[in-house]
Write a structure and sequence with these properties.
This protein is an all-alpha fold. It is 75% helix and 0% strand.
């Protein structure tokens, strides 16, 4: 999940860079929160998909 969060953070920072209009960087708190939220969401989805695959394999 940590690697997924880092990957999503990089994508979010590319789409919405933490720089003001005049070029000053700022703390990307919203980007961090977005990456943690989406990594948790994708982890849950991946968990259920893998569980479904394993359940199908056992039967």
């Amino acid at each position: 999940m940590v690697l997924l969060a880092v990957l999503i953070y990089q994508i979010v920072s590319y789409v919405s860079p933490p720089v003001t209009v005049d070029g000053h960087p700022y703390m990307p708190t919203s980007n961090i929160l977005k990456s943690v939220f989406f990594s948790f969401l994708f982890s849950v989805v991946i968990f259920f998909i893998s569980r479904k695959i394993l359940k199908k394999k056992n039967t």
